[in-house]
Amino acid sequence: MVEWRAGETRRSVWRAGEVVFLRKEPWRAPVNYGCLPGTLNPADDAEVDAVWLGPPREVGETVEAEPTGLLWLADGDHKVVFGDTADAAPLLAWFPQERGARLLSAGEAWAWLAEIGLG
Fold first, then answer.
1. Residue 96: left if φ>0, alpha if ψ -120 to 50, beta else—which one?
2. What are phi and psi of 94, to 5 degrees?
């Protein structure tokens, strides 16, 4: 579920089965950002975060695709990546160095999803 469209400052969130406006951010999203509804990331007790690389998608769009990678973060709040990972530089640059952002493979994304009970 896309919550924040690439290139825009208007940010929404998935709540109670719908996408609702959250706030205007001071920066534009470098990627399409959202979540996998009905999932739970134990690191933050919220839906698993997802990013879609490539052209902007519509807020509220449901995208069915196979993971192409996993954005690994030191705090465990990993994000499942979809799209061409050759376009991942803006995503990696979005996170401060102390979060240790690394792009892992699709296989590692599936392994992490299985580890948290989703694979």
1. beta
2. -70, -25
User: Per DSSP, which regions of the chain are E strands?
Assistant: 2-4, 10-15, 18-24, 32-41, 46-52, 69-72, 79-82, 102-105
Could you give the number of structural domains in the chain? 1
Q: Mean pLDDT over residues 10-21, rounded?
A: 95
- Which CATH number fits the domain that encloses residue 54? 3.90.80.10
pLDDT band at 119; cut points 50, 70, 90: low
Which positions ≥6 away from 91 have C-beta within 8 Å? 30, 31, 51, 53, 71, 81, 101, 103
Question: Strand 32-41's sheet: what is its strand order?
Answer: 2-4, 32-41, 46-52, 79-82, 69-72, 102-105
Per-residue pLDDT of 51-102, as tens digits, reads 999 999 999 999 999 999 999 999 999 999 999 999 899 999 999 999 999 9
3 state SS of 118: coil
Q: For residue 41, what are the domain limits?
A: 2-115
DSSP3 helix / strand / coil % (the chain, rounded to 5): 20, 40, 45
